[in-house]
Specification:
The protein is built from 8 helices and 4 strands. Strands 2-3-1-4 form a 4-stranded parallel sheet, sandwiched between helices.
Length: 155
């Protein structure tokens, strides 16, 4: 099985590349999707409350906008949240690869991981693909998604 790491900065087109690879037959896992599932777990929510305080919507789900406001203005809180989530994300990706290795040993498995270089997890892949877009395009895409210019700059 070929393990491909797919990475790049925010709003560069990683998800688009992942979808194209999946369309061609690759099996894809997204770190962002894993995080979304983790944010539904009560134990993770409890730890987030300890780290960030009350960042929850009335329905009990994590308010990702509130989380972003905190972590992109407080490097220590960002680090604490990453220390909580990154090991769990890496474990999910490892399990995904193990399952595919057993069930489809001739396949191509792609992990879309935004912070692959920063975390050193790029070492876990046979090939790393970096998706690039000019900063001006990244900023434009973020603003089109509803962020203010200031929020886009922080990210």
């Amino acid at each position: 099985m070929l393990k491909v790491g797919l990475t790049g900065s925010i709003a560069t087109g990683k998800s688009t590349v992942a979808r194209l690879l999946q369309k061609e037959g690759a099996f894809v896992i997204s770190a962002d999707d894993v995080v979304h599932r983790l944010l539904e777990k009560e134990e993770v929510k409890r730890r987030i409350r300890e780290i960030l305080g009350d960042v929850f919507k009335p329905d009990g789900s994590v308010d990702r906008k509130k989380v972003a406001e905190i972590i992109f203005s407080n490097p220590e809180k960002k680090k604490q949240l990453e220390e909580l989530l990154h090991p769990q994300v890496q474990r999910e990706i490892k399990n995904f690869f193990s399952r595919l290795e057993r069930e489809k040993p001739d396949s191509i498995a792609v992990a879309e991981v935004p912070l692959m270089i920063e975390t050193g997890s790029y070492k876990n892949y046979d090939v790393v693909v970096v998706v690039y877009a000019p900063e001006s395009l990244q900023k434009k895409r973020l603003i089109e998604k509803g962020l203010t210019e200031e929020e886009a700059e922080k990210r």
